[in-house]
């Protein structure tokens, strides 16, 4: 997220007044990409088409804990902040399992809302792999990286849009990345677990590319 104000924020809240109130605060704070949805079906399609960076999610959407189900089906790169009523604490233990970035209790206070959003934006700025490409320093967001392939003294980085070659070994690269997201599939392949579409006994598939899966590393993908 280069300019924090371009962060895409999706508000999923069935109480229209609360949703509008949150949206107005964000617009006053110069956030330009804010969308509101009031039900689960629209939320599902918005997560696919709008692809938000941050989701402000009503935990108790339409009186059910639909917010928790939705957060399990969110788009990969979205950070969820739950919005809860005072009586929703029983649901919180379920919600915490989905690893949200935080939660806000109603009535929502502007200071809490903006603090939660700032935390996500700062965390996301840390979520990138930095390397030299010629004279330039490149910052690749983790969500843009599909996999790394070792090639001699170099490693190739395959992203969602292009390929880079850097003079670093896979082991050196792996040490700089979070091990719960980037995992060895083979001695020559380091993959972003969130990008794996299919797993068979000896291969993985990412974006229609078959990647060898060796027995040593297969346990990481169980």
Quick gist of this model?
This protein has 222 residues and is α/β, with parallel strands linked by helices. Helix content is 30%, strand content 33%. The protein folds into two domains: 4-126, Rossmann fold (3-Layer(aba) Sandwich); 129-221, LytTr DNA-binding domain (OB fold (Dihydrolipoamide Acetyltransferase, E2P), Beta Barrel), CATH 2.40.50.
Structural summary, described in words:
The chain is α/β, with parallel strands linked by helices and 222 residues long. It folds into 2 domains: 4-126, Response regulator (Rossmann fold); 129-221, OB fold (Dihydrolipoamide Acetyltransferase, E2P) (Beta Barrel), CATH 2.40.50. It is 30% helix and 33% strand. The protein is built from 7 helices and 15 strands. The protein has helices spanning 16-28, 40-49, 66-72, 89-96, 110-126, 170-176, 215-218, and strands at residues 8-12, 33-37, 54-58, 79-84, 102-105, 128-133, 136-141, 145-151, 154-159, 163-166, 182-186, 189-192, 198-199, 203-206, 209-212. The strands form 4 sheets. It has a 5-stranded parallel sheet, with helices on both faces. It has a 5-stranded antiparallel sheet with strand order 10-9-8-12-11. A 3-stranded antiparallel sheet has the order 13-14-15, with no helix packed on it. The longest helix has 17 residues, at 110-126. The model has no long low-confidence stretch (mean pLDDT 90).
